[in-house]
Q: What sequence folds into this?
């Protein structure tokens, strides 16, 4: 009886050890996965907050815009770049005030793997109308009409101005509702951080 008890105890011990090792393996897998996810979306939360963005972490809905020459541009085609998607309107006074700051930001980053997509939500306006309007208010960046493209309703959450920051993997990492200081150091530090992270993960 004591021999059988000893065998049973050893069997229980082996089972418990195997079960514990399996549990440790699962925990390590979850931890490693968490580290990978954090690395893939490694943007300093303080930088996001300082620049006026609410932190998000979700797949960006696909969108398509049409430029002044009739050429389509899609989010999928911008993969590998940081995308600043900005919704605005000609009747929005706060949007107009942002033009000089956005233009300064655009001139600084337009050749640095940052894509600026400025989408007007105006109805009954032509591409020429918004092009002329943007130029009159000091914009050198291209502007697009929402009516001519395909912008998911998921982006229409509040009104204008509204800005989404999309990383080079196609994920929304932040949203800013209302006007911001786009030429300030906070936004520049945020974009610089994203560009540096993109280089690390190539």
A:
């Amino acid at each position: 009886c004591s021999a059988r008890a000893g065998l049973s105890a050893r069997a229980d011990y082996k089972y418990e050890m195997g079960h514990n090792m399996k549990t440790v393996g699962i925990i390590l897998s979850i931890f490693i996965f968490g580290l990978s996810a954090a690395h893939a979306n490694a943007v300093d939360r303080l930088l996001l907050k300082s620049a006026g963005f609410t932190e998000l972490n979700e797949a960006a809905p696909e969108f398509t815009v049409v430029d002044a020459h009739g050429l389509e541009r899609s989010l999928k085609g911008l993969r590998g770049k940081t995308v600043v998607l900005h919704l605005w309107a000609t009747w929005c006074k706060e949007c107009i005030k942002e033009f000089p700051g956005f233009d300064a930001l655009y001139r600084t980053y337009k050749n640095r793997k940052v894509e600026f997509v400025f989408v007007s939500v105006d109805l009954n306006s032509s591409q020429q109308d918004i092009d002329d309007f943007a130029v009159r208010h000091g914009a050198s960046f291209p502007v697009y009409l929402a009516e001519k493209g395909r912008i998911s309703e998921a982006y229409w959450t509040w009104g204008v101005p509204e800005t989404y920051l999309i990383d080079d993997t196609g994920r929304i990492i932040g949203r800013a509702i209302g006007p911001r200081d786009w030429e300030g150091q906070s936004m520049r530090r945020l974009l610089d951080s994203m560009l540096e992270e993109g280089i690390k993960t190539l």
User: Anything to note?
Assistant: Confidence is low (pLDDT under 50) at residues 24-41. The chain is about 45% helix and 20% strand. Helices lie at 2-40, 45-50, 93-109, 127-136, 185-200. The radius of gyration is 25 Å.
